[in-house]
Amino acid sequence: MLLSAGDTSALPRRPSPFPPHPFATNDVNGVSSPVPPLSAVNKHKPWIETSYHGVITENMDTVLLDPPLVALDKDAPVPYAGEICAFKIYGQDAPFEAVVLNRTSGEGVLRASSPVDCESQKEYTFIIQAYDCGAGPGGADWKKSHKAVVHIQVNDVNEFSPVFREPLYKASLTEGKIYDSILQVEAWDQDCSPQYSQICNYEIVTAGTPFAIDRNGNIRNTERLSFEKQQSYQITVTAFDCGQKRAKKDAAVHIDVKPVCKPGWQGWNKRVDYEPGTGSRPLFPKMRLETCEGPLSGVKVLVELQTSHIGKGCDRETYSEKSLQKLCGAASGSTDLLPAPSPSANWTASLLSDSGRDNDLIYRFAGRQAANVPDHVVPQNLTDQFTVATWMKHGPSPGLRAEKETILCNSDKTEMNRHHYSLYVHNCRLVFLLRRDFIQVDAFRPAEFHWKLEQICDKEWHYYVINVEFPAVTLFVDGVTYEPYLVTDDWPIHTSKIDTQLTVGACWQGQFTQYFRGSLSGLTIRPGRIETQKVISCLQACKEGLDINSLETQSVLVVEGEDVDSVNTAMTKVSYINSRQFPTPGLRRLRITTSVQCFGEDSCLSIPDMKAVVMVLQPSEPRITITGSNRLVRPAGDLRAPLGVAPFKELHITSTIMKGDSFSGRECFPATVTPAGIMETMHNLDYCDVLVIGEELNPRKESLELRHSALLGKHLDATNSTSGISIYGVDSISHYEQALRQVRYRNWRPASLSERRFRLTCSELNGRYTSNEFNIEVSLLHQSAPVEHVNHMAANPQYMRPVHHPLMIHTFNSHMSGTSNASKCHETVSTATVVIVVCIAALVVIVVIGVYRIHATHQEETRDDDDEAKEPEEDWDNSALSITVNPMENLKGLQALSKVVKEGRTEEEEEDEEQVGGMSSAESDYSDDEVEEEDRMEVKERNREGKLEWDSSSMKY
Length: 957
Prior knowledge:
Layout: E1 25-26, E2 31-32, E3 51-57, E4 64-66, E5 84-90, E6 96-102, E7 107-112, E8 123-132, E9 148-155, E10 163-164, E11 168-174, E12 183-184, E13 187-188, H1 194-197, E14 199-204, E15 211-213, E16 218-221, E17 232-241, E18 251-258, E19 264-266, E20 271-274, E21 280-282, E22 288-290, E23 296-306, H2 321-327, E24 335-336, E25 352-354, E26 362-366, E27 371-373, E28 385-393, E29 405-412, E30 419-426, E31 429-434, E32 445-452, E33 461-469, E34 472-477, E35 480-482, E36 486-490, E37 500-504, E38 507-508, E39 512-513, E40 517-527, H3 533-539, E41 544-547, E42 556-561, H4 564-571, E43 575-578, E44 586-598, E45 601-605, E46 610-616, E47 623-627, E48 631-634, H5 636-640, E49 652-658, E50 678-680, E51 684-693, E52 702-705, E53 717-721, E54 724-732, H6 733-741, E55 744-747, E56 755-764, E57 769-770, E58 774-780, H7 821-870, H8 891-912, H9 933-945
């Protein structure tokens, strides 16, 4: 029962602590008591707190107040004046009443006078005052306290369940697509508090459905749906408020699956065959993107050519490092620290090499291999400008604490073990150390340059170039510039007389230490100057790649457009190109990734990735053939002459390839039957080696020489040793022929010569294609004593004056490959006819003018030498002739010729000093003071015989 203010009939009756008043009854609590005498006076007002806070649970009547409701009066314990008779509430329709529980102690209670509903009103605020009992039993002269504010909060009870706004929800989706939200269901709760009125969770009641719902009611599909598998789904959804009270009635959801076209690329082939030498090949000429007419705002396509399995990451030329530098226009003077093992470069013989990838020479270091570079190879003139370059593939270092891994190190050979300069990897950082010698200023200078790059430990090939312009050091990685993130200073190194040791793969400190783990290739140092950006880009350029609109080839292409049509047009122009004449055959994988943008959305269509392959077919391998005379017999005078003899004067180099179904390029060979499908091809060579068979050359009496002038105007260099001559550089077959024909063999003590044999081999693509081994033997012509009567029919053909015939053009030379096949065959037949006619005519003419030719020889020598240098290709090929004439004239003619030869030798000595490799006779270590007595006798004998011999070194043969 709820009580109103002043109504205390329902409260329990308690006995009064005071005696009954004789004159009045206490109306406050309805208990009659005697009225105290009128002499008592009510002096003080009751006192209560200034504010109260209360909490009541809806549908309950008890209010919990803080602080408790208590009124105090200073007139206590005087009856009536010191007692509290009532509490009064002031407020607009406040459904509460205050009841006095004990008049003496002033305790009271606040109760709800009518039902309280949180959903109707959550809070109440009103005023309360306390009243004492007055001066007497009649309540006369009562006093009231000050007004206090009471704030009551109504606690909610979770009495309502969630209710869905719609009993049935419908939606549809397109098959094969993942949606973030198909539709949203919504429920609400009538409770007043946030705890019970909010919906905290939704749940799909139907089990085994490919759908999920989040706490906001968004329903999505968890897998790509297929119209053929199921056309519609019926699911039931329920809701929970935050008091975990479930909805009394669940909602039904109906989802339809609509069949549509499948977006993706159409009209493409998984394999595209590429025939070498065909230039740019379109990969997707008929490909188009199907988007099912969606409202697209942009399309982005990424086309990636994956070639990490080939050599150093793509199909590059496999010429030597020096040859590539020449092709790219780099300045000369670089030193290759990791050359292919050879007699002159034997320090790499102990290293592990991997040349299985198209002869792309790679050295693998497993933490145990290193090599000392010989002192004569190490560049000694490093200035403030130099370049260090290398190909490197490196992965993360093993172990928790990675050690330094030295790529290149120049340190003291003994004692101090100081590092003068080095390049090493440490914790996936590339560090270049450069300690300069102390000169004048004893102060800190930049010494260590650090770069932190992902490429250093990604297990992929990258091309690193360090350009030093002290004190600045710049790093290029795959042609991109990187400045050091850290540069540390150090004291310069004081100069000392201790020799240094340059090592590769580790650092020398009395023993190898700080081993490198990874792969290296093409490690070079170029002293005196830095490399240009253009050359660096050329050296690491890829010969294969993707091309569009004849732009620069690259391994990754990005095609972007606002509409599908423009993207489709661009994709039909994407091509594969491999500019190598003999590319590495095999697969090249393609990956195409497509993203589609819609208006207002990040992505609206899911385009599956496309994978394809480019099959580079096996190129028609060239067959390099060296032909010419295999035997050269010359008199002692020719061998002793300043120019010596030319063993390879009649040399010819041809390169042919097999074309199984092509006869347009058929050549005419010396054989009567021409192999079907053979055609001559024009390409470059990169080296030709002339090796001495048997004992090496004795520099005191013989040399193999090549004048520098023979290399002018060509991309060729040469090295010379007692083992032979090596001509190298990427250049045409024609230029190699011209250079080899001017190689001279000289022997200034031929009496002891029985025979000297040489072997010639040539190479293309750093040994990928090699020629046959062409052997030639040089021997001495032993002459009989001179007689007065000369048989002119016994003369050797090499002493004949060359006959220049306009029809005698060699059909197998590479620079003549453009001649038609019919004309070539006709020329060969004409050549044979002319040879027979010339043979008969020569026999008759020589008999008549033999004596005249001997006296005219000297007059022709100078002109013939000039002709040989200017037009080496126009010499008559007399290899098919066999004409013998007695070379001996009368004794007077020989003596006159000997005198002329002696005079001519002094004029040719200056020319003789211009030789390759320092092997000319003027620079040889031969000396009369060093030879033995037997050698002196041989020299004297040679001087006596010189009067009876002529010098035919300048004659054509």
